[in-house]
From TrEMBL:
This is MFS transporter. PANTHER family: CARBOXYLIC ACID TRANSPORTER PROTEIN HOMOLOG. The keyword Transmembrane helix applies. PROSITE patterns: MFS, SUGAR_TRANSPORT_1, SUGAR_TRANSPORT_2. It is a multi-pass membrane protein. The keyword DNA-binding does not apply.
Amino acid sequence: MTAIVESNEAPFITEAINDGNGRITQYLVITIALILNMLDGFDVTSMAFTVHSIGEDLSIAPDKLGIVFSTALAGMVIGAMFIAPISDRIGRRSMVLGSILAIGLSMLATAFVESLWQLIILRLITGLGVGGMLASLATISAEYTPERYRSFAVVTVTAGYPLGATLGGFVAAPLMAEYGWQSVFVAGGIATLAMTVAVYLLIPESLQFIVVRRPPNALRKVNRILQRLNSPALAALPEIDSGESPPNANVFSLLTNEWRSKTIILWLTFFFCFITLYFLLSWIPKLVVNAGMSVSDGVYASMVLNGGAVIGILSLGWLAEHFGLSRIIAVFLFASGVIMSVFAITNGIDYLLIYLFAIGYLLQGGFVGLYAAAAKLYPAEIRTTGVGWGIGLGRLGAVAGPYFGGVLIAQGVSLESNFIIFSIPMVISGIIAMRLTVK
């Protein structure tokens, strides 16, 4: 079996992706990946929208609900670290299809839970699916985008996550009012499962994956995709030096001398970001209710946070093209920690929505920039592994954030004090991100 040794794209792939003849296929890949990320955002934050109602209906205390949040995020850690890298062996498209089925079915089943343990198991499965899919979506989006727009495309696709969480609030509030919290999970499960058809019919496998890994009938598969991209067919796949084979895609390939320092910086930045981000995503509705506002106000506060995130993510894509991705990530992350501290110190509850919009803009803007940085940092043969492990190890912070947030809330810690505590990881992540360099 022949293989491509070079970590860069084969020349024919670069030409096919960059020449613009296959825009329709490229737009389809980006659009479907964006929609899937939107559904992921809705699926994951559905617990935040429904947590108050579930807690009352099933008589579950806040600290126990914190375990539910952390279990889902633990599933995302496992999925990103150990399931997502499998796509470097079986393909991005196959991984996305399997993940959609796991997410959709577990979401539907969540509507019928009757105990804490059932809820924990199903949210774990949902987390495994989301963790397995996110890295593949970022990777395949990057691989079907012309080089000059790659950062912007990955950032735009990843913006689907907070966008889905924001729009999900508009869906969740009336659904819960009319049909109960169960309807939120039914809607999310059905919408997610429906996307299997779109992925199966419209998303091609990654050209770089096929060329590097050489699955059966590789040449025929490559030419079929090249036809969709309106590019000339190949008579044969590129030859390489004999005796070479593609490197194994595993965590050790990320820790070689060439990649070790960049990998560790990426992991640490993800980790500290995840602590605060998932504390906010999980507990903002509950904290708002505890501050004396209504359940609907809590849902809308979460929507404002994620609405700011969408604007921040999209503007980061433009800013990154003009000022450099690494620099903008560091500034956004550090500034988000400062804004959280200012809110807490000035007791800015009267301006809560303005602060939440600003925090969402900066925190999630910088956070999603890390996805783009990870997708650009590694070569094709270890790209999904690199993105997956960055997200996965980072999500250890996402497990810790909601859990300790639940403990603090159960002890009666105020909204302002929580913001002081969870601003610290953002300041640290901004400082670490200053060392992150991406071409």
